[in-house]
Amino acid sequence: MLDSFDRKILTALQSDATLSLAALSEIIGLSQSPCWKRVKRLETEGYIADRVTLLDREKLNLGVTVFVSIRTNQHDEQWLADFASAISEIPEVVEFYRMSGEVDYLLKILCSGIGDYDRIYRKLIRSAKLSDVSSSFAMEQIKYTTALPI
């Protein structure tokens, strides 16, 4: 069970994973030793899954976001395993979901433009038998966060 100190630690680390123990302790109002023990417990219990560095997509020429809806007539375990394996080999696919409803799978792809997306699309359609592939290009990113609501 998370208490208010745990929630403060998680909130602070989501904002800046590079905080020193001294800075984190000051932010949450605990001395360093109890703060360190809590961070270690939160890691051990899986609340802190990883620590990463967020990169600027524009500077890396990945400013175009494409959402790809996929439908298929294939719904067996082996097909899904093969499809998931093929998709994991496409680094531009940054999110991949199995969906309920009319769409079977939803992908989020980051690329440099339409020509780059076409290259990725061709990999995608070679990866498995698909019934329908529909692409939507994001016009504007209105909200983006990696922080989970705590």
Question: Unreliable segments (pLDDT under 50, ≥5 consecutive)?
Answer: none
Sequence of strands across the biggest β-sheet: 2-3-1-4
Fraction of residues in helix: 25-40%
Main sheet record: 4 strands, antiparallel
Provide the CATH top-level class of the largest domain. Answer: Alpha Beta
Total count of helical runs of at least 4 residues: 5
By CATH, the topology of the largest domain is Alpha-Beta Plaits
Query: What structural class do the secondary elements suggest?
Result: alpha+beta
Q: How many independent structural domains?
A: 2
Q: Round the mean pLDDT to the nearest integer and report it.
A: 96
Percentage beta strand: 15-25%
Return the string of H and E elements.
HHHEHEEHE
Oligomer designation:
single chain
Using only C-alpha atoms, the radius of gyration works out to: 20 Å
